[in-house]
Amino acid sequence: MSLALTAPLLVNTPGHPLEEKIGLIPVTETIFSPTMLLVSIVGFLGIYAGFAFMAPKPNEIIPLNGDIAEPPADPKPQTAAEKIDNSIIVNTIVVVFGILAISLYFIANGFNLELNIMNFIFLVVGIGLHGSPAKYAKCITDGIPAASGIVLQFPFYAGIIGIMAGSGLIVMIGQWFASISTEATFPLFTYIAAMIVNIFVPSAGGQWQVQGPVMIEAIQNMNINPATIVNAVSVGDMTTNLLQPFFVLPTLGLAKLGLKDIWGYCMTAMLILMVISGTFFLLVPVLGW
What we know:
By secondary structure, the chain is mostly helical. The longest helix is centred in the last third of the chain and has 25 residues. The protein is globular and about 60 Å long. It contains 14 helices and no strands. The relative contact order is 0.14. Helices cover 67% and strands 0% of the residues. It has a domain of 163 residues. It comes from Brevibacterium mcbrellneri ATCC 49030. One of its GO terms (cellular component) is plasma membrane. Keywords: Membrane, Transmembrane, Transmembrane helix. This is Putative TIGR00366 family protein.
């Protein structure tokens, strides 16, 4: 867990969007609550034990001396994912939809250039000129290795959250979980819903702005502390962040590693944290936290 969790800090900020319904919630009920502290401690110990079990034996460790060597380039895509990454068809589809979106923007707004549309135009042109997603990603990595993953992926994440929020899908997910929950299970189902939404919207602030009001509205007739909902959404967000750990992309770029080199560990950590966190949020109503 972290001192910089978006939702807990937001609901403790005067004037936040849900202040009329839940007031200001101090961090003693969120970040420093018994639930969050115990999830942090037990989660750390559980993940530490899991990684210790997965660690290679001393005779299996290959030491790195000096600079990290560049992996040999493989000109031939082997796996299905690599073939998609190098596909001109996929590239063309992305560019066509990008041009369509740009055209619709100018039809609706006239020739009104602003920062977002300029960034999007450069993104679409760059993808189109490089011929395949893999080539474009490699050029960005060569140019800004420490931040390439974030620079390239976050425009697409922004598009996904726009689609999910605009279509009402996030609201539907929240309402469905609310409809099958009781006071005893609602914190757990809120946690599960947050994990699902975060797979598509890995942005804590954006996720809370869309999912938070739905969950808070659902507990208006329940005897549930709003802080519990804030905690459940925050931990759910962090749990599936391990499935797509964008937060380590700068470090991976500097270390010249790919996500596939650490993904097994991330998946293990996510499963361990999922079991531990789910258990705690199931016990929260029983313990009265």
